[in-house]
Amino acid sequence: MKLSQIKAILPTLSNVEFQLADGTFVPEHFHVTEVGQISKNFIDCGGVIRHEKTVNFQLWNADDYEHRLKPGKLLHIIQLSEEKLGIEDVEIEVEYQSSTIGKYDLDFNGKTFVLKNKTTACLAQDGCGIPLPTLKVTQSACCAPNAGGC
């Protein structure tokens, strides 16, 4: 989800809720402790120089049980970040503490924001020298020519 998308969704909500991919919810008394832009410049395993930018939201579960972040307040924080930091309309990455700091992609299911699990991948599959998995085809009696089909 890009920053412009969350900005369009927030005014339609009465509450801001984040849900993990396993269905559990971030406690409703969470705080957004950071909104910023992260730039990542790196070389992949194939030697290609890459540049990525993300908008970063950091969620923190505090023991402040009376606190509830309202959509208008989060929208204000985002707008202030755009004005003061010049953050761009790029994909949002959310940091949330569990056993360690987890990084998540962000989605919206029509009611709540969903923290989607991120995965790693080889960005240079053609050039890094690691063979891609191949399918092993086995032939059984039912698949033999003239065997009547599978």
TrEMBL record:
InterPro entries registered for this protein in UniProt: DUF6428
Pfam families in UniProt: DUF6428
Top-rank taxon, per record: Bacteria
Descriptive protein name: Uncharacterized protein
Organism: Pedobacter chitinilyticus
Lineage: Bacteria, Pseudomonadati, Bacteroidota, Sphingobacteriia, Sphingobacteriales
